[in-house]
Amino acid sequence: MDKRWSLQGMTALVTGGAAGIGYAIVEELASFGAKVHVCDISETLLSQSLSEWEKKGFKVNNVGVLRGKQTTEYGADDFAFHISTNLESAYHFCQLSHPLLKASGYGSIVFMSSVSGAVSINGASIYSLTKGALNQLARNLACEWAKDGIRANAVAPNIIKTPQAQPYLENVSFREGLFGRTPLGRAGEPNEVAALVVFLCLPAASYITGQTICADGGLTVNGFSYQPQA
Q1: Do 85 and 170 belong to one domain?
Q2: Does 168 qualify as catalytic in the annotation?
Q3: Catalytic residue among 74, 106, 127, 168
Q4: pLDDT digits (tens, 9 = 90+) for 73-90
């Protein structure tokens, strides 16, 4: 097999990898030959994963939470909850991982962002700002850590068919509104996001860094469309 398309001999650490998109990422990485460590909310598992990190490494920041409210309804606890879970955890984990990624000589960080970090999504102002911050963090680390052989990118999905998104997709009004704005007319599958994440980890993507790539069925590029009546 062409080594550009293989992760044999490489190690990945996926946060939030127990379900949904994270689970799909773990399976996809393993299918390309990577040794994958998974952590979710267990500090013990996190410490174990870091201590066992091997020669080459990838870091996938997949943790994210959303409390949907209008901006005027959010309280200080909502703000702190989103910032600590979606942003602080990724930031500090990157700091912690830097020596290991640098030592590997081929490090890659992938942040799980969202289309809400690129366009306005009603009822998610704090969530959106955390995802926009991750996009900027990817740009900063891409430049700051390039000398250490570390790349950093972000993946921004649309609504994906996961247990977390299911209540929204079961809402007929929400679903019709979303699909009407999405050129491909559907929600994404977890493995469609995982495929992009894994590509960014492959040697074939070695010249891609500092980018935010949307896996969104075309949502973020869809402008106003008017079809005149015949």
Answers
A1: yes
A2: no
A3: 127
A4: 888 988 898 998 889 999
